[in-house]
Each structure stands twice: as C-alpha cells, then as structure tokens.
Request: fold
Amino acid sequence: MYTFEELSAEPVHTFCYLIGVLKEWPLKNQITADFFTGHFGWLINVEDQSDTVWETRRRCDLTRKYVLPTAPLTMTPSWSPFPLASNVMPEVLQHGRTDDAWASAYAIFNPVLKVGEVITLQFGGKQTSFETPVTDGQLQFENIHAHHFFWLLEMTIARAQKMKKPIILAGLPGFGYQDVLDQDLIGESRLRLLEAGYLYPSRAPQGARFSFLSDPNARAARKEEMERLTRSSPVFPPPPCC
Reply:
C-alpha cells in the first residue's frame, strides 16, 4: 500500500507523515488525502512556534477537531510507512490517495495488530491458548525509520484502544529531512508537545539525528548544499536612500 515510489516523482525526497488517533470522523465527502495532508504546512508551524499548550491544541483545525497526534509531523528520507502499517494492521477501514506526481495518501485502521504468535499455557490441568500481537522482535525492519514508526504505532494502538477510536495515518512527499536532523525542535517545544498530549516530541528517531550529527561527511555535505542554495538565491539591491 502506497510505497514511496508510488507517491513521489523523485527517487530521493523527504517523506512527511502524521500518525495518531482519529478522534472524530470528518463528513463522508470530506474524507480525502488532501483533507488530512492539506493542513501539514500550518501544523508544522503550530508545532514549532506555539507559545502555549492551549495554542498547540487549538490553532490547527485538523488536530483540534479530528486527530490526536502521537508525534509531531515525522520526516523520513525516501521511506513511506504505509506498507508497514498495512502489513501489521490488516483491518483497513478506509484509504485513498491523490493522482499528483507528488501524491498525498491516507489510511484509517482498526487499532489491532496482526497475530504474532499463539501461546499455550496450563491452567488447572487444562490447556488454554492465547493469540498475542506481533512485536518488534518478530519483524525485520528495513531501516531505523521503519523501527521508529512501529514504536510510534504500538503507542498509538494502545491509546486508540483505550479511546475506542480508529487510527489515522496520512503522508506526502515534502518538507526537509536534513533540516530536521540539523536542527530539531528545542527543549521547550518538546516539553510543550508532551504536555499537549503528544507521546513523542521529535520529528525523527533520536538515533537518526545522532548518526547525522556524528558523521562528518554528512555534515560537510549538508554545509555544501546550504552554501549552494545561498549562492543560487536571488540577490536584490538595497533600497534607495531617502
């Protein structure tokens, strides 16, 4: 379901996704990929720049009315979480995508993980079998972003089951993964997100950011790219003096 290659016109591009509990279903004719991802540009500003917990919860219609996020908008390098989500949550209630070259997609799931194994125990001389949900130890993750998504998903499922609500996953190619690694949310913002109900306060796995910051080649490549963008930016003459 909705691999990165299916959604992005470029083989190397940032993918941005939102995972959370669907607090309330939108109207039937509103439920489209654009309905969810169309708020991303504003939501990222709300998450970054709000001054209070109240503003974080109330300034974006998507999170105020419909979605309780597990994490702020999460960035990955050319990886989509939809195939993994549909593999471990087989009960898809609804899904869709746009037909753009850089396509948005969404999927709504029943918050139940597929069965990982069946455990048989003895009680009073009788055997009783239990189906247990799949765990990260039973899965093979292709990268740190897949493992991080499953970690977020486990928390989302626990919350959704408690609230008796479905799970929403929405995403699209866009925004800047390297920017997230170079400068993540500051400490005060991370604390504000946690107080606003987020379960994880960063846009990328901490391991990914540590690897980037400790890799001199990655840092040098990032510096070169920023200098290139600066050189290619238009230069405007100063305004005339009065």
Remarks:
- The chain has eleven helices and eight strands.
- Residues 92 and 109 are 5 Å apart (CA to CA).
